Amino acid sequence: MTSQDFVLRAVNLDGGYVIGSSEKELRFVHAVRNVSLNLNYNEILGIAGESGCGKSTLAKILYGAVDPPLVLRRGSIYLHTSEGRIVDITKLDKEDLAKRIWWREISYIPQNSMNVLNPMKRIRDTIIETFKFHGIEISKDEVTKYVRDLFDFVGLPTDVLNAYPHQLSGGMRQRVVITLAMMLNPRIIIADEPTTAVDVVTQLNILTFLREYQNSKKSSIVIISHDMGVHAYMDTAIAIMYAGSIVEYGKSEEVFQEPLHPYTKMLMSSLIVRGDKGLKRGIPGSPPDLRNPPSGCKFHPRCPFAMDICRKEEPPIIEISKNRFVTCWLYAKR
Ligand SMILES: Nc1ncnc2c1ncn2[C@@H]1O[C@H](COP(=O)(O)OP(=O)(O)OP(=O)(O)O)[C@@H](O)[C@H]1O
């Protein structure tokens, strides 16, 4: 496999939440709008954007965790498996996903993952159960053998296995969940805000661990965060999401050096640069209500460069250079 190969390719994903209790009240929260992207071999792809832009929904769809009220209306997700086959995971049922794909090929670290551990079970029993869910029987003694290296890598002592979640700090619980996600050596890890609820030192440890792990295994990571500092530290490529769409995509260094979309520029201006004593401004306004988004470009009400056409028509996806895309009328040749 070369660096040009994709491990996961999403094509025209379109989905969201069906909400409302009666037929008359049914509404659609259009959280993911026509999203296409490639996750390449040995890459860390960041998904950035403010809260409510659809990042977590995209993560769930990419993993195949599409449960009501979430629906996927259109699109395909092609996985290049470790056996060299290409499988559209949107066509697989839950049982197939659990047995063949989840953990072995793709792992998912959900938002607030430090709270997903069963409070009534010791970590060792949670691990045994999780293995069982994926069709693998292991004994209590085997657990220690399985996790020793990974625990070492994340800096957890093996006696954590005998603890209940409440006996561990938030950072330790988070590291346990990350270890769980890595136990079957998946080629892809989707991490949704893996460090929001921990202090800055733990945050740096967890991010460094993810990066080192990725580098040693040549796996691929999708990292979701609203924090541009996390993306600056982690990403090799970055997709900027706004109101359910990807508005800019490119190699991380290119996007950070020369952001194109007005929204990306605003996100970047929230980054604190060393030595910069100026006051950082937040982005004025807030993302739109995805039940009833504005016409045309969804960013136009907040955009200082909005033109007439931006209010009326959705902007096209423009390829500025190889693998560098922006969805904005400012760059369209008309
Ligand atoms: N279970 C749900 N039912 C209905 N609407 C939902 C549900 N989960 C999310 N949404 C809505 O979908 C939209 C996208 O939310 P999503 O969580 O994907 O955004 P996000 O960018 O990940 O933000 P955050 O970081 O705050 O989670 C929002 O309008 C949100 O209110």
UniProtKB/TrEMBL annotation:
It holds the Pfam family oligo_HPY. Keywords: ATP-binding, Nucleotide-binding, Transport. GO terms for molecular function: ATP binding. The lineage of its organism: Archaea, Thermoproteota, Thermoprotei, Desulfurococcales, Desulfurococcaceae. InterPro entries: AAA+_ATPase, ABC_transporter-like_ATP-bd, Oligopep_ABC_C, P-loop_NTPase. SMART domains: AAA (SM00382). It comes from Ignisphaera cupida. This is ABC transporter ATP-binding protein. Residues 8-268 form the ABC transporter domain.
